[in-house]
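stage 2 :: seqdesign
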């Protein structure tokens, strides 16, 4: 379906959100297309009009959880060119985005063991997150606020840490455990700030 009416787009969204809710609770393989239709309030045949296969429905779930473009826009609007505040901001925005799309991510994870997922769609957010943080740290190096070094490695280490905490959040339903993890995440950001900060800082331009 290339050109969809507002009604069709709404139906498609209802199908995807119904699938996310069911699959995040029970797993991709334990949810049938019929059950998705029932949850969305439509018949199974209608679901197949929008998604020819269950795999194409999973691809739509991956796209549903996209977050990088909005995160980049918000980060660039709020950044202060202070490394400590900006890395905390990036982490905060990342986890806010993760929280809002948690069930979509859990639904996706439940299919990883046996479904050939669209890696490009899934990894695009990670690449976009990497790219704009790379540009930020490069600019901070030019300002003299971040030490010279392999910017790519710096960014990858930070992004990998965010992803690791995100995985723990998505897979752990215990809020008390998660609060402890968030405290350790704040400490890890301080480690990054200390490791990346240059000895001589210049005023933000």
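stage 2 :: out
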């Amino acid at each position: 379906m290339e050109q969809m009416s507002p009604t069709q787009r709404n139906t498609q969204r209802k199908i995807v959100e119904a699938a996310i809710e069911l699959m995040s609770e029970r797993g991709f393989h334990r949810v049938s297309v019929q059950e998705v239709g029932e949850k969305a309030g439509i018949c199974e045949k209608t679901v197949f009009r929008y998604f020819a296969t269950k795999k194409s429905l999973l691809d739509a779930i991956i796209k549903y959880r996209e977050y990088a473009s909005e995160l980049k826009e918000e980060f660039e609007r709020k950044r202060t060119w202070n490394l400590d505040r900006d890395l905390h901001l990036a982490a905060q925005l990342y986890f806010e985005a993760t929280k809002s799309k948690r069930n979509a991510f859990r639904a996706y994870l439940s299919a990883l063991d046996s479904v050939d997922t669209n890696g490009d769609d899934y990894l695009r957010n990670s690449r976009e997150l990497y790219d704009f943080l790379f540009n930020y740290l490069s600019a901070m190096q030019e300002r003299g606020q971040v030490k010279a070094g392999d910017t790519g490695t710096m960014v990858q280490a930070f992004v990998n840490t965010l992803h690791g905490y995100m995985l723990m959040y998505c897979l752990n339903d215990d809020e008390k455990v998660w609060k402890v993890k968030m405290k350790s995440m704040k400490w890890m950001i301080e480690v990054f700030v200390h490791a990346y900060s240059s000895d001589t800082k210049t005023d933000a331009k």
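stage 3 :: structure notes
- Confidence is low (pLDDT under 50) at residues 200-205.
- The radius of gyration is 20 Å.
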